[in-house]
Amino acid sequence: MVTRQGDLSLAREVQQRSGVPILRCYFCQKCTAGCPVAYAMDVKPAQIVRLVQLGQKDAVLSSTAIWLCVGCETCGTRCPNQIRLAPMFDTLRYMALEGGYKPEPSVYALHRSFLESIRLWGRVHELSMLMAYKLRSRDLFSDLMMGVGLILKGKISFLPERIRGLAQVRTLYETGSSEVER
């Protein structure tokens, strides 16, 4: 490996916290080639892994890329070493918050709204999640007509449905070892 022994502390921490064997990466870049949001990232997925391997904590945690991962798992499907980047990006987001790095505001607002919807209902309720996101992001009217159209077509329901195992979902939120902010 190209890195010096002292540089591996970040990689080992991320690997331990996320359960993702990122030290296996040899930079084939298949994750980046398949990522549907790589075009919008300031640092591409394979580059994030490499920066973690090199111990470049500030570059990684200040990157907007860690906030743009949608968790689609295309990276893990394409990776010849079965490296799933979505859990690694989740870990990096928590590390960024713990370290006082400022998240991408609109992406963080969506992230929080999504997680809050799951905590409340056990699944995502699109209408309440979108309303919470609009309030957090302070972007109330940019796509209002599209939302009205979706509601009129019955694509977004007014009433949420709670799942049967809601208590178990809420327990996950309460016992999460890396939880930083709600």
Could you give the topology of this structure?
Layout: H1 8-18, H2 30-34, H3 45-53, H4 57-61, H5 65-68, H6 74-78, H7 85-98, H8 105-121, H9 126-137, H10 144-152, H11 166-175
Task: Kindly describe this structure.
By secondary structure, the chain is mainly α. It has 11 helices and no strands. The chain has helices at 8-18, 30-34, 45-53, 57-61, 65-68, 74-78, 85-98, 105-121, 126-137, 144-152, 166-175. The longest helix is centred in the middle third of the chain and has 17 residues, at 105-121. The chain is globular, with a radius of gyration of 18 Å.
Structural key phrases:
single chain; 182 residues; mainly alpha; 55% helix; 0% strand; globular; disordered C terminus
Radius of gyration: 18 Å
The average pLDDT score comes to 88
Report the strand count.
0
Give the helix tally: 11
Low-confidence stretches: 177-182
Distance between the termini: 39 Å
Strand content: under 5%
Outline the biggest β-sheet: none
Structural class: mainly alpha
- Overall geometry: globular
Short description:
By secondary structure, this protein is mainly alpha-helical. The chain has helices at residues 8-18, 30-34, 45-53, 57-61, 65-68, 74-78, 85-98, 105-121, 126-137, 144-152, 166-175. The protein is 55% helix and 0% strand.
